[in-house]
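Continuing from the previous page of notes. For each protein in this section, the sequence appears first, followed by its C-alpha cells. Read the first protein now.
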Amino acid sequence: MKSELLTALRSTKGFVSGQELCEKLGVSRTAVWKGMKKLKSEGYNIEAVSNKGYRLLKSPDIIDAEELKSIRKTAWAGNEIVYFDVTDSTNIQAKRLAEEGMPHGTLVIAGCQKSGKGRRGRGWESPKHDGIFMTLLLRPSFPPAKASMLTLVAAIAVAKAVRIKTGLFAEIKWPNDIVINGKKICGILTELNTEIDTIHYVITGIGINVSNQKFEKEIAPVATSLMLESGKEIHRAGLIEEVLEQYEFYYNKFCQTMDLSEWKEEYNEYLVNRNRPVKVIDPKEPFTGIAKGINERGELLVETEGQILAVSSGEVSVRGIYGYV
C-alpha cells in the first residue's frame, strides 16, 4: 500500500482527507493511519491536521520499488521494479530475472553493489546510499547488429536527465561515460544475450555517482559526484525517474528508424569529444585525430591524416579528459 499512499499524497498540492484515502485505496481508516505511521518511520515528512487530512511535505532519499512506483510517469520503462538493498550487481540480477521471464522494461535497482563493474571488467565503486545502481532489461525485436547503439541511447538519456534535475552541464564521453568538468560521474555497461539473428534480451547497467564525498586514491583524479559538483543534495528517486523518461523517449525514436538519425545532432551537442584531439586505442593500431561527432549508426567520426574514419569499437581517450594529455 506504500506506493498507493504516496501516489495519492503526491496527486494533490494540499491536504487529502483520510476518508478520501479510504475510498480511493479501498481500505479502512485504521489501515490508512498505520500506513502513514510507517511512512513517517521511514523518514517521510507528513503533516496530519484534524478535519483536513494528510499532506506530504518532504520525501527522504529512498529509492526502493514502492517509492519509484509512486513517481513513475513512463509507459513501459520501469513497468516492473525489483529492488535489492544490497546485491552483487544489478546487471547480474537483471540477467537472472531475464532468464526467469521478466518483461521488457523491468528495472533492477540496488542500494549497494558488492561486485559492480564497468567495461572490460573494470570495477565500479558502489558505496551504499551514495549512488544510483540500476539496470534496465530490454527485449527488442530488432537484429543484434543494432544493439550496440543502445549504449548511446542510455548516454544521452542520463546526460539530459542530469542537466534537467541538477542544472549541471553533463556531457558524454563516447560511447559510455558521462562527465562533468572533465571528470566521470556515470558509467554505462550494455550486455546482450543473442543468437545469430535474434536478441533474447539486452541489459543496460547505469551507475551514477550522486552523493559521494570522496573516492579511492586510484580513481579520485578522474571521478566526481553530483553533490561535489553542485554542492547540493540530489534526490536519487527523482533522477532515476527522469532517466527512465528520457530513455523511453530516445529508445522509442531509435526503434522508429533503427538508427540515431532522429537525434544525432542533439547527441553531438552533448559530446565532449567533439572537435577535440582524441586517441583511439585500437587493438590493431592506435591512432590520433580530431573527433567530429557521431554518424547515424553511433560510430565516432575521427579526422586523421586527411581522412574521416568511423570508429565503432575500441576505446577513445580525449585530451584533458581522464589524464590523456
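Done with the first. The second protein uses the same format. Note its length before scrolling.
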Amino acid sequence: MKKIRFIIIGSGWRSLFYVRITRALPEMFELCAMYCRTEEKAEKIAGEQGIYTTTSVEECLSFGADFAVVAVNKADIFKVSRQWLERGLAVLCETPVGLNMDDLREAYKLRQSGAKLMCAEQYIYFPYFSSVIKLAERGLLGEPYSVGISAVHDYHAASIIRRILNKHTESFKVYGKTYKFSVTETADRYNKFFDGRQAVKDRVRLTFEYEDGKAAFYDFCSVQYRSDIRSNYICIQGPQGEIFNNSVSYIDENFIPRKKTLVFEGNNDKICFGDEILYKNPFGTRLNDDERAIAEVMVKTAEYVRGGTDGGNLECALTDAYYSIKMKEALETGKEISGSPKLLFTEG
C-alpha cells in the first residue's frame, strides 16, 4: 500500500496519538498538517511537536489527503466531522460518532448519500482483546452466551460485548446502578501521584439481557485506565468453556477438560494459545497497544477510501454509541431500559 496521507483536525491529547504513530511509522503514514482553530495554538503545537500546523481550511483541502482525522472534544465530534465531509473529504472520527439519536441517524444518512465516514473504535484491535475475540468466535467455548467486562467504558465496552456475543441490531434490555467509592489516586494522563490523595469515583455496574438468553455484565470505574491499584478483567463463558483474563478452560474433542494460559511475547508483539499465534504485531515497532490498534484502523480507513469496503465499521460504531446512550438512560432513571439499535437504520 502506498503511503497513507492524512490531516488532523484538533490539537488535544487524543490527536497526539496520531502524531506519535506517524513519527514511529514514517514509511506508512504522512501527516500533511494539523488544523488548529487559533494561530496561538498552531504555533504552540508546531513548536512542541515539530509538525506542520495551519488555521486554513483551504490549505488543508489542498493537500489531497486520503482522509481527515477528527479528534476534537466529544460534544463536537459529529458537528466537525460533518463539516469536513461536506467539504468533500473522507473522515476518520474519534469516538463516539455522536452523543444523541439525531446525530447518529444523520451520520448514517450521510453515509447513505455517499460520504465516507469511519470511526476510530480501536479496542477490538488491541492485541489482547483481538486474541480472546478470535478464540470466542472460532467456537472453542461453544457459542458464547455471557461476557463480564471490567476494562473499558461505555461504547468501547459495547463494541467488545457485541463482538463476543455476536450481537448487531438485536434488541436488548439494560439496567443497573452507579455506586460511589473513595479510591487513592496513583496517576492521571500526565502525572504519577505519591501523596495519598483520594477522590470519590463512580463505579458503574450494568446488566444487558437479550431475547435469546445471552447476557453481558459491565463493571467500570474511570480510574481503571491508569490506576496502579485497580485491575481489569474479562470473563467469557460458553457451554464448552470459559476465558478468564489469560486463562482458557475448555472441553477438547474427546470431552476432556483442558486448561491453557495465553502466552505473551515482547511488548504484546505476539500472543499465543499453545502452538497457535492469535496475534502478531503487524507494524514491527514499539508502539503501545492503543497506538497499534489506532494504526490498524487508519490502514483500514485508507483501504476503504481507496475503493474497498468499511467492513461494517460505521454501523458498528453507531450501534456502540447507541448502547452508550441507553446505558446513560438506565443509570439516570434507575429503570430497566429497552433498546433497539435497528432504529438507527430505519426511517422515523
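What the second structure shows: The first strand starts at residue 4 and ends at 9. The mean pLDDT is 96. We return to this in next week's lecture.
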